[in-house]
Amino acid sequence: MRIFWDFLLIISIGIWIIGLAAQGYLPPQYSALFLVGLVFFIAMIKAKGSIGRLIRFLFRVSLPIASLLTFVIVFGEGNLKETSSILIHLFGLLIVLFGLYIMFSGLFRR
């Protein structure tokens, strides 16, 4: 079952990388390098010990940040003023969502 989840992770991140390459935001050489690196790092997650935990932590932290920054840059069309405006509004939304998470998680604590 673990292989299935790894496969889904490779597909979802792979589509994200290929989409960036298709839109011209990422050169094809770099996208190929990122795809190979993606498969390598997902394979390293299975490693025992501190390397596997480090890679798992980096994926959990860096993927949401990279997705957020990609969203902001693509919709801001590279314009610094638009990009910063979108980023500020998204940070406000994230603060509200985190507050809702804290409130809802308090309902289900024992």
Structure description:
- The protein has 110 residues and is mainly alpha-helical.
- The protein has a domain of 75 residues.
- Helices cover 85% and strands 0% of the residues.
- It contains four helices and no strands.
- α1 packs antiparallel against α2, α2 runs antiparallel to α3 and α3 packs across α4.
- The longest helix has 28 residues.
- The model has no long low-confidence stretch (mean pLDDT 85).
Could you give a short description of this structure?
With 110 residues, the chain is mainly alpha-helical.
The assigned structural class equals mainly alpha
What does the largest sheet look like?
none
Strands, count? 0
Beta-strand percent range: under 5%
Integer-rounded radius of gyration: 17 Å
* Structure annotation, total helices: 4
Helical content stands at: over 70%
Principal-axes geometry comes out as: flat
Measured distance between first and last alpha carbons: 31 Å
Q: Name the helix and strand elements from N-terminus to C-terminus, one letter apiece.
A: HHHH
The residue-averaged pLDDT reads 85
Unreliable sequence segments: none
